[in-house]
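Please supply some protein, with fold tokens.
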Amino acid sequence: MPEAGAEAGAAAEDVEVLIVGGGPVGLTARVLLERWGVRTLLVEKHRELSPFPRSRLVNTRSMEIYRLLGLADAITAGAFAPEFGRVRFRDTLHDGDFATAEMVGVHAPIPESPATGVVTSQDRLEPVLLGAADAPTRFGVELVDLAEEPGGVVAVLADRRSGVETSVRARYVLAADGANSTVRQRLGIDTSGPGAMTGFTTVVFDADLSRWRARQPAGVYFTAHGAFAPLYPEGGWAWFAPTPEDAADADWSEVVSRAFGPGADGLRADVLRVQHWVMNAFVADRFRHGRVLLAGDAAHAIPVFGGMGMNTGVADAHNLCWKLAGVLRGWAGPGFLDTYGAERHPVAHLTLRQAVANTRLALQVQSRRREQREAGAAAPARMELPWTDRYFAQLGLVLGAAYRSDAVLTDGGAPPDPAEVGTDYVPTAEPGHRMPHLWLAPGRSTLDAFGTWFTLVTADPAHWERRAAGPWPLHVEPLTGEQAGRYGLSPRGALLVRPDGYIGARWTGRPPGDPALRDALAAVTGSAPPPPPAGPATPGTGA
């Protein structure tokens, strides 16, 4: 259970990783690190989980990660049905659509993944994540200072209710404390990008809007009077728009009721909560400062259009946590954590660029419609969208982001270029890419074979098992010859897949010499190769 805060006079404690920030990224990191057996403490300056909906989309890649953690069913149970995976553009909420588009990988399953994304509110997601781990959490506790010392970091934590300060010693700090990150600012890490773009207001309210959306469900309705989003399958709505100049004196029930548009028949919004926030757009200049690592909005603030901000942070955590475990447990070298920034920093820049493009596209739709209406003639019933029929065409970035770092062995070939991600996803079994999904058996994907271990995927398990030795956790996943061929492997070849599901090394055929696998594991993790193996690995199990 989460603790209310640090007790007065409590002695300094030691943890392996201090997680700062209790949003989806920090909570996901807490679950991942607990699965690796890493001792963590999570602190969050607010007294409870956020009551605001905030992020609205858990995309396909995030659901793949939550599927591996056994959380996908619980997340889906509280989410909207797949038909809500759509955006609609209307003049007013009660008008018909003049444009609409599906959210790819959410509106319906896709053959490229065993998981389907969902439309759900962040305040539904966070309790699932909080309950998925037993590691201690402290709400109402804020990091106010930190200093690196030999072998670790000393953080000063303040209970925001009592003012009592305590110290925690951690081997590493994972900062997921948002766009206004205290940790990033204290470390003096600069950012690049547009920065603060504009102020927005979100109003959470109740009203019976079923007559306008019952037969035309959507995750978001964009109108000329702001955007409307259903919050939960059982009811509740949010309206968001640029913050008006008279926000301090606004009657928000009146503001939202007017936003329904003419013809709303006197319908009133029953306002529950109001939040003002700033849309930021930046990427931190670096994601690591010694033993402190940035993730989520602390590392990159992504505009909301396209729903990529939180999901990019979840992928950060998935990339980072196994690397922290490797360094802490000794099977990865001390410089291994440098590969986190090398891999995720280019992805953050690509994501920011895509999100800014998404914002411009959404605004372009509204601008075109406004021009049509201002022309004096009757506006056409439908309007051509300035993108493909798949919502902002971002699957290439969601599933196709490539890594280039010392944790990827290219075997002499050209390393993947992270900047060459297109709008469409093209599966590839080359090193540096997410392992393509393939059904191994009914309901079991290749992606389900990954976990707190490296996975060797091969149609020749007996040969490779004899060569698997060393400190690294390793699981051998057998393929049929036909399945191996679909990955471009001969019956003797193999793929070495990292715990985050990315391919670290590839042998299209049987490599010469016994040390190939051990050397690859040593190279991928930045550690020294072990002595020759003493015996075979156990097939189909993690070490």
Q: What stands out?
A: The CA atoms of residues 103 and 391 lie 5 Å apart. The first strand starts at residue 13 and ends at 20.
